[in-house]
TrEMBL record:
The chain crosses the membrane at residues 39-59, 65-82, 103-124, 202-228, 249-274, 307-327, 334-356. Its cofactor is Fe(2+). It is found in: Cell membrane. Fe cation binds at H83, H140, H272, H276. Catalyzes the cleavage of beta-carotene at its central double bond (15,15') to yield two molecules of all-trans-retinal. It comes from Halobaculum halobium. This is Probable beta-carotene 15,15'-dioxygenase.
């Protein structure tokens, strides 16, 4: 896989140099800010404010089903599913290479083997697979945020402990905090996954008040310890640390006040996926050039174009699975099928992102110094 071609060679090599072993370039910081972070702050902040106000007024609006499922449904088309549909191009580009058929084949085989194995595991052991899905997402979303924090130039995350804490906290916010406040709705979602395979969750101690109280207390301690560990590494008033602490607070409040289906669906699109899209812009020479010229829309259009074919294939595959399996068309069942489908794609997606982290010196082994 040593082939490089034309203009991408030098630009690609520059990307690798810029991402592995040197501080983030100003243009990378800007893309992560403008594309990856600002929209998420705005959308999640607004939703949290609305939900907190409604809650404070003592109103409990029974949201119609279409509103509850809308963010998840939208994620199939807008940013969510598409953010992984560039996985066939991202590894080569991260290594500063042009994606050739050999790269595509390598990623394709990885998807088939890992996705196939996980699909088989869902059929054999749905409850364990559901737990694995939540654990995998915890890790993946945590690592996504760690990358974004590095990319905007945070300096308080040097050190293995604070990095591990950041992954645990940032991943636990979407995966654990909804369970603390909305155990019944959380349970309904996970129940629907295992029901697809004719199973039930069973006693599931994790939903009991005692277990949730203990998990919530432990997670609050890990959050505070991580934020303080970061604080010790920089001078007072460090902007990167303050931003991290403010995001952490925002996400705690958001997942405590916004009902989980909406909260996780919106977070998936507007937070995790947009941050990954910003990362994709940075490894694609053409998109990066557009962004460096201040044309973020052109950069996004380029990523969107790259994502289009495999997004369409994924949706067609999902529709085929739904038809063959003959699932009913209740929103809860369709959402469950979609999420199990995402789970199967997530395992190879996590492998691709872990590979990108390794090449870029990012992730737990980082920061890129
Ligand atoms: C919807 C939902 C849940 C789980 C969603 C998951 C696990 C989504 C994973 C998406 C991934 C991995 C996308 C790729 O990056 C919970 C928290 C169980 C309960 C609340 C509603
Ligand atoms: Fe992802």
């Amino acid at each position: 896989m040593s082939d490089t071609a034309g203009g991408e060679e030098s630009a690609g090599a520059r990307t690798a140099a810029a991402t592995a072993g040197s501080a983030p370039k100003p243009s990378a910081r800007r893309v992560m800010f403008v594309v990856g972070c600002r929209p998420g702050w705005f959308v999640l902040g607004a939703l949290a404010a609305v939900a907190a106000t409604v809650g404070a007024l003592g109103v409990d609006p029974a949201l119609p089903a279409w509103v509850r499922y809308a963010p998840l449904a939208a994620s199939a088309l807008v940013v969510g599913l598409p953010h992984g549909a560039v996985d066939h191009l991202a590894p080569a580009r991260t290594a500063g290479r042009t994606p050739t058929p050999r790269w595509l084949l390598a990623v394709g085989i990885g998807y088939l083997v890992l996705g196939g194995a996980y699909a088989a595991l869902w059929a054999l052991a749905p409850v364990a697979s559901a737990a694995l899905f939540v654990g995998l997402t915890w890790l993946h979303w945590g690592q996504g945020d760690l990358y974004a924090l590095d990319s905007i130039g945070s300096r308080h995350l040097e050190g293995a402990g604070v990095r591990l804490g950041t992954v645990l906290v940032r991943g636990g916010l979407p995966m654990l905090v909804p369970l603390l406040r909305f155990p019944d709705r959380y349970r309904q979602v996970v129940d629907a996954w295992v029901a697809l395979f004719g199973r039930e969750l069973g006693s599931a101690w994790i939903f009991t008040p005692g277990a949730r109280g203990a998990l919530g207390a432990a997670f609050a301690v890990v959050t505070v310890a991580t934020v303080l560990a970061g604080r010790r590494r920089v001078s007072a008033g460090d902007a990167g640390w303050r931003r991290d602490a403010a995001e952490t607070l925002l996400l705690w409040v958001y997942f405590l006040v916004v009902p989980p289906l909406v909260a996780v669906g919106v977070y998936f699109c507007a937070w995790h996926s947009l941050r990954h899209v910003a990362r994709l812009v940075e490894v694609d020479p053409a998109a990066r050039r557009a962004a460096a010229d201040g044309d973020e829309l052109a950069a996004l259009a380029r990523v969107g174009r790259d994502a289009l074919p495999l997004t369409a294939v994924s949706i067609a595959l999902l529709a085929a699975v739904a038809l063959v399996a003959g699932v009913d068309t209740a929103p809860a069942t369709l959402a469950a099928l979609y999420l199990v489908f995402i789970a199967v794609l997530t395992l190879p997606h996590v492998a691709v992102v872990a590979w990108m982290d390794r090449v870029q010196g990012a992730g737990l082994a980082g920061p890129p110094s």
